[in-house]
Amino acid sequence: MQLGGLSCTLGRFPAPGMPRFQTSKEPCMSVVYNPEAVEKAAREQWDSSRCFEVKEDAGKDKFYCLTMFPYPSGKLHMGHVRVLTISDVIARYQRMQGKLVLQPMGWDAFGMPAENAAIQRGVPPAKWTYENIDYMRGQLKRMGYAYDWSREITTCRPEYYRWEQWLFTRMFAKGLVYRKNSVVNWDPVDQTVLANEQVIDGRGWRSDALVERREIPQWFMKITAYADELLRELDNMPGWPESVKTMQRNWIGRSEGVELSFEVAGEDERLTVYTTRPDTLMGVTYMAVAAEHPLARKAAEGNSEISTFIEACQKTDAAEATLETMEKKGMPLGIDAMHPISGDKVPLWVANFVLMSYGTGAVMAVPGHDARDWEFAKKHRLPIRQVIAPTDGSTIDVADAAYLEHGVLVNSGKYDGLDFDAAFNAIADFFESSGLGRRTVHYRLRDWGVSRQRYWGAPIPIIYCDDCNAVPVPEDQLPVVLPEDVQFTGVGSPLKDMPEFYETSCPECGKPARRETDTFDTFVESSWYFARYACPDAKDAMLDERAAYWMPVDQYTGGIEHAILHLLYSRFFQRVMRDEGLVQSAEPFTNLLTQGMVLKDGAKMSKAKGNTVDPQALVDAYGADTVRLFMMFAAPPEHALEWSDEGVQGSYRFLKRFWAAVHTHAEAGAAGPVDPSILVEPQLALRRKVHQTIQKISDDIGRRHAFNTAVAAAMELLNAIGRFDDKSAAGRAVEREALNAVVLMLSPMVPHICNALWRALGNESVLIDQPWPTFDAAALEQNEIDLVVQVNGKLRGKIRVAVDASRDSIIELALAEENVARFVSGNKIKKTIVVPGRLVNVVI
RNA sequence: GCCCGGAUGGCGGAACUGGUAGACGCAACGGACUUAAAAUCCGUUGACCGAAAGGUCGUGUGGGUUCGAGUCCCACUCUGGGCACCA
Length: 844
Description:
The protein is of the alpha+beta class.
């Protein structure tokens, strides 16, 4: 971004105060808008009164307003500014509604970027993180966000993460965590585990080596134990966007199906598969197993072609998107399974798209009625058999494409003629009665793997003992503190080279034992921080009774990119905490606002892409209010916002006009209260506009969260005030009421300038404690309104009618309108539609 | 590949419940002020036809429903997000 030129023209603001307008009462106020001075004064006022620090008060309506806390990446970026401003506007608006508003801030402080910085610049992750936090905290304060800083949380501090270690041990006791093998991306050159993000086109980002799938033992949390509740409760969450709920429903992916087993020639163990389409069972023409499947391994022993293929299968990363888009490859194993009903031989293949860790590691293939199976069968010339026909009797050819709909069974022996439900039940019954299978409910959702082979994370509180196996660290030995003074090289975790960290004794038998050196996924910290803000200083418990007061969060705001993982994990943790007796509510977030991303050059702003825009330069040039205003005005909050450097000036210009309008009015002297009974038409019109605008902005902010149209409405009103030229006492009273309303209504968005303008208008009170303005219905009343007249749906004229005009008199006026009459003349009117208050449509 | 969004002037967007498409702002152009520039103020600005009145077209593409569609339905195109180790 090029702001060098800007600072030349904008860096030299006129010195505060021009003698002509200076008053002794407000030394830094003048008709020249000086954002730096105005904002500093407001900040000092808020800081010294500590007005955003809140204490629980059972007698008051609480409002917990929260933003997804930032990762301390170095400095604020536009995405932060956008979401934090949205949340701040809501918080300040709710305060004006009389609520006791909690708006806390903290740091999602563990994560990979700190390790990357350590590798690149040799700074220890802890030092880098704490320095970033200090810098970014300063930036947030400069933006004027209404935070209760006394509740600040930093997740890399032991006093924070000790409680998630504690919860983990509680979950261990309840059987909600377990250890199993799972796949990671292994970089064979750097000898390290890579994040999916660090794999580019199947190669390690630094080493450029082909990444391998490797299985290692890892800890899992049983989120699937809550799958059904997490799914069902979505139906009772009206405060969440439908799109997010739909994404979560699909992610959880509940399906009802049948688990059934096939006999394998020469094997004792049967091969089990899960299917939601048992009705297509007679169409199975082959089966596929994962490369890691024991049957594949066994077949590879005497066959170098198969073992080469299996090796090749493992030379790929573990991301689902990769698996789904890569070329589907497979090889026959030379082993046959037996079809459980027909007894036919079904060839067994090994395939690269089947994963051992998902489900049973084996699938039955019905190429006639499954798109992926169809493609694979075509490629490998496997038979495709039609066993389902359309219910409407039409014919299809499975040689052209798989038929995916439910239908009637054909070519299925005794099951022929059955529909989906009947066939499902008949075949499920067959397996259940023969003991070879059973009906099951299956979830796409998998248990949450929380182990990370990284240094900069919270240590997993487990001790491995040769005799006692994996033992959780006892509560009185928590926290397991992550050493912060380490040599970080990037090859493996330094914890693995620190005997002083991992050497310990078994809590159960006392023998020498070894600590777990893996750390938690950073999503663990972000899955409960919202509750900890209620009682950040609680020493003896994860949460105390204050959490019951503040939770659930009334308004949660964050990026749509978190629609699934973070929000689902948080919903899971909230339930774990509930079952531990720590909170009451099952759901952590009552209302969710997912703000769109700030894009630059059509892509998400990220350090990795190098397309970030630094808000600091804008704040330096124009002040925080201009940046806040622009972010609110540029787009509705849910939309992606394509960043453009232009347009910020427009917001700045508006604030200058706003400032000048208030001061010009105030310089002219006092103004009394409005007496509606003596107003005449232009005064009534402005007053009507004022109260219309109050009505609109209240709805825009309070209900719709449409901050962009709220700003537009305020701009319109200010334009109307500018055109209003009435120096009479009544005129000045109306203008004063109008300006007071604009200041109040813009104050959540641009709080600093409004703080100053409120005083300039002669108000002695503190702006942030003012109630939100209410509109006067009497001021909205009108005698006449304009209606649009259409002929056959096309706009042909406008008429002005009395508000209470009858339908007949409206039609009469409409037909009399000159242009309308021209289009109607000589035609028979078929019908006339009158939409009260809007339009007349004459159909000819 | 699968799931969830989006597409409206030169640009960001408005139109909330199917009822005046383009509010508000940016940019551009013209004018005022100025020695000049910046800042500020005033005006014009969807395309086309017309002297004007007014008309025709127009909300990614192609169909449909309706008196009336940016909005609802069907089929596409392009594009953003997510896909379990970025946060």
